[in-house]
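Chain A, query sequence.
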Amino acid sequence: MRSLLWLAALLWALIVLTPITSTSAQADFKVSDLNISPQSAQEGDTITISANVTNTGEKGTYAIQLIINGEIKETKELTLDAGASELVTFTITAGSPGDYFVELGNSSGSFSVAGSFWSIFPTWVWIAIGIIVGILIILIIVLAATPPRKKQPEAATEGAVTRQWTPSDREPAVSPPIPTSGPGPAIPPTGYQPTMPPSPPTGAPTPRAYPTPSQLQTPEQFQAPMPAQVPHPTYAPRPLFSVSNLTIMPNQAKAGQPVTISAIVSNNGSEAGRYSVILRINGLVENIIELALPPGTSQPATFTVVKDEGGEYYAEVDGLGGAFTIIPLVPANFTVSNLTIVPERIKQGENIAISATVTNTGELEGSYSLVLKLKGAIESVEELTLGPGESRRVSFNLTKNIPGFYNVELDGLTGRFVVEMEWQG
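Chain A, predicted structure.
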């Protein structure tokens, strides 16, 4: 009887120690001393990410994944003996400017990338600036090489006023007084000889005849001059257009959302006509609207613009300008929640279901690799693609034949289940 009791106690000890021994024989990996160098880099620089991987259990293989902003960039497999450590190094090239979150096993860190001077503006803006500068340089060279024009001397237009003197311009000769007869003897004046005026020679011009005062016209006989009649030019009727009241709604929009740009076009002329309203975005023609306006009328011109890239945009309509901002969409970002393990205790060879909910909290569609780890080693990977705001329940169905405790890790969520030994009777 006493030997039977010892045999039962020994059998009970074997049952208890068997799962413990099996559990301790599994490999267990830890990631520590994460180092990111440099933590601030320029676009295009090389960034080194390293960490120590230590196996605190038995010899085993571990797949360490480099995850940046929720996306798996690279995976390396390590085989370590019990208690061994190894330095794992990843090398990446810095991408577009921004902040980046790094996950390496159970360690995490971050680094930032600053943009270069040439990334301040898009490539087409630099091309436009280069073309404008080139045109200005050519104009300066042409102006410097062109000789200045010489000023032509002005021809004299004023002629000398000349007048030819004629004998008729002379004043008539004044004859001396002729003495008259009277009482007494006629005595000639002293110093004067009674002579007759000489007759003009043959062919000489006769003295000019001047009009008498009675022959002169009175002032009232002259007609007052009439004002000069200047003909006024006549113009053909034509349309005259003006653009006013530029509005941009909204001033800020998400990428892919419409922005409405409108202005009022008026025909201030006396004739109906057609007018082309041109919308330019950042100096480039975006759209053209044709309007037919009767005289004295106004009509709104409305444009709808959709931009997919974030940034500042300058809109111009016929000399009127304004700006609006496009906010870029948040990239795809995934979260894992609601880890369930059903059942938590199974027999050898039975199935167990491990599931969780994956949600894309970003504003863009993206792909995600959901990694299931058992005792620190990768057991299974599920690839899925989710749209913005979409959630999906992902389930892993497993079968384990080795009894023991199994630690479950699913993207930061942890749990465990037990595989019990099945006794053969």
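The longest strand covers residues 46-55. Confidence is low (pLDDT under 50) at residues 20-24, 155-162.
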